[in-house]
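Deliverable D2.4 — example input (structure tokens):
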């Protein structure tokens, strides 16, 4: 996992921060990133443990109907991340080469049922924009919300697998329609549950940081008193400097 450092300089939230675009070129989000030690990465660990519930989907296919339920995606892995400030209070970022594992249950007309799994292909991507709200003094960010989200998710046909009473013939027959419908569903429905996860975590984190910053400001260290001039060397007095150095 790779931990990135974004260099920013700002005096106030609305002063127009200078933020460099960040590019991560190594995969982010795996089980190793949650293990304490050199590989620990909070962002990667959070992505790996992120669990997103997906709405049920009904797929008419000829004379039968395929119903997918209890759907979810987890174990996100990101190939690269780019980020920039579109405005002083808006952070935009993109996740490229997005991968994830998705699963759920299926039911096909005639009583055929079981579990289904599939993978998000690495050609998938996600773009998000986060808008920050400031306090009454316009000094600290107190809230963050996802205000822009566009997902492009691809479920490869080859990644769809079934368990249960489905036959090999039906497996090959339904893989394509399921992959196509799930690609469409995730590309339009991924953002809402993701926003529901991100907004409260982001706002809570900002408020915790604000509390720490205010604590530091309110309890600033006691100023160091002026040093006494007695017995101090005056570096402009060449004689004293010479005597001090040469004994």
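Example output (designed residues):
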């Amino acid at each position: 996992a790779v931990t990135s450092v974004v260099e920013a300089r700002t005096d106030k939230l609305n002063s127009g921060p200078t933020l460099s675009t960040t590019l991560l070129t190594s995969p982010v989000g795996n089980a190793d990133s949650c293990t304490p030690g050199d590989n620990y990465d909070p962002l990667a660990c959070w992505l790996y443990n992120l669990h997103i519930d997906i709405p049920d989907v009904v797929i008419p296919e000829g004379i039968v109907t395929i119903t997918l339920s209890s759907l979810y995606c987890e174990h996100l892995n990101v190939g690269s991340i780019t980020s920039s400030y579109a405005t002083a209070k808006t952070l935009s970022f993109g996740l490229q080469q997005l991968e994830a594992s998705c699963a759920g249950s299926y039911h096909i007309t005639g009583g055929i049922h079981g579990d289904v799994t599939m993978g998000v292909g690495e050609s998938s991507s996600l773009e998000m924009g986060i808008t920050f709200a400031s306090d009454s003094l316009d000094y600290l960010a107190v809230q963050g919300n996802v205000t822009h989200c566009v997902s492009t998710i691809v479920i490869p046909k080859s990644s769809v697998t079934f368990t249960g009473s489905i036959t090999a013939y039906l497996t090959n027959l339904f893989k394509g329609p399921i992959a196509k419908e799930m690609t469409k569903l995730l590309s339009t429905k991924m953002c809402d549950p993701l926003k529901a996860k991100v907004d409260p975590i982001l706002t809570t984190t900002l408020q915790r940081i604000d509390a720490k910053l205010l604590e530091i400001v309110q309890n600033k260290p006691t100023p160091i008193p002026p040093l006494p001039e007695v017995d101090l060397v005056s570096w402009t007095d060449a004689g004293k400097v010479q005597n001090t150095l040469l004994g």
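The CA atoms of residues 239 and 245 lie 10 Å apart.
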